[in-house]
Structure formats: structure tokens, C-alpha cells
Amino acid sequence: MSIYAYSSRKANGEAVHLSAYEGQALLIVNTASECGLTPQFKELQELYDTYKDRGLVVLGFPCNQFGGQEPGTAAEAEAFCSLNYGVTFPMFDKLDVKGAEADPLFVYLTDTTGAEITWNFAKFLVDRQGNVVKHFDPTAKPLELKSDIEKLLG
User: Fold this and answer.
1) Average pLDDT score over residue span 59-84
2) Annotated catalytic residue: which of 35, 58, 81, 91?
3) Given 77, 83, 104, 146, which is the most exposed site by the fewest CB atoms within 10 A?
4) Alpha-carbon distance 142 to 60, whole Å?
5) Range list of H helices, 22-125
6) Is 120 part of a structural domain of the chain?
7) Average pLDDT over the chain, rounded to an integer
8) pLDDT at 1
9) Where in the sequence is the domain holding 84, given as residue range(s)?
10) What is the pTM of this model?
């Protein structure tokens, strides 16, 4: 099984099957607009701008589970990210990333890596075949992931 077995909804409500990203490397991140780590959006966008033409897509999944730091709607989160950080990578609907109501995609990501999501901005790197290859803790700065991303992009 790979992440291509899962689907989600974009912030605008559009259903997206993750197989739409087949052949691309992915950086999947649970995000929040009112978190001390929110400035990571700037570096996430920088990664996207740097590597999108080589096949990297950053996917942002707003989550309100940690400190209530994503209180608004998914559309409000997307607008905030665009306005304040110039985010152009895909933003998805709000979801839970752990616990009884955890979204199946995040259950798969954590089960595959053995990781526990402890806060906003946990990052999962996925190769072009849909295999989860690495988990990064929330405090890992996005630009620190460059060498891992470059290995996947070849």
C-alpha cells in the first residue's frame, strides 16, 4: 500500500485522490495558523518554489488538535497562509492527525514511520512511488530537509 490509496479534500472542498500526485515527491505537513512554528510556512513555500519544477509538492493539512491553534475554517487558514506567507502549494481541509478521529492518511503516515505527531508542523517525506521515507519533528526547519528532498528528486 502507498499514500495513493488515500484521498482528502482541498480547503475549497474539492475532493482529491492522492494518486493525482503519483510520480512526484511529497512533503506532507500538519499546519496551524496561530502556532509559534507558523513562520515555517515561509520556508515551506521556499522549498516548494525551489523544487516544484523538479517534482516536489508540499501538501498542507490544517489541524486544530494542538493548543487550538487553527480555530478558523480551512478556507480561512488557506487565505491566511496566502496573504501572510505567499503560500501557493495545495492546502487541504482541516483534519485530526492523531487519536480516535485521526484522518486515515495520517494514521497511515504514523503507522508506516512509527512516528507520533506531537505538535503542529510534523513533516512526512514521500518518494515518487508513494512510499513514506522519513518523518521530521515539528521543530525541524523546512530548509534543513533540502538534502533529503534532493536525494528523492535525483
Assistant:
1) 96
2) 35
3) 83
4) 13
5) 40-51, 74-85, 104-113
6) yes
7) 96
8) 81
9) 3-146
10) 0.97
Q: What is the number of domains present in the chain?
A: 1
- 152: in domain: no
Residue 151 lies in a domain: no
pLDDT digits (tens, 9 = 90+) for 79-136: 999 999 999 999 999 999 999 999 999 999 999 999 999 999 999 999 999 999 999 9
Dihedral Cα 5, 141, 51, 4, nearest 10 deg: 0
Residue 141 domain-assigned? yes
Per DSSP, the three-state class of 55 is coil
Nearest Cα residue to 47 out of 132, 128, 146: 146
Contact 4, 24 (CB under 8 A): no
Q: What CATH number corresponds to the domain at position 81?
A: 3.40.30.10
How much helix, strand and coil, in percent to the nearest 5, is found in the chain?
Answer: 35, 20, 40
| pLDDT of the residue at 145 | 98
Within 10 Å of residue 15's Cβ, how many Cβ atoms?
9
From its phi and psi, is residue 59 left (phi > 0), alpha (psi between -120 and 50) or beta? beta
Tell me the mean pLDDT in the region 11-37: 96
Percent of all residues in the chain with a pLDDT value above 70, rounded to a whole number:
100
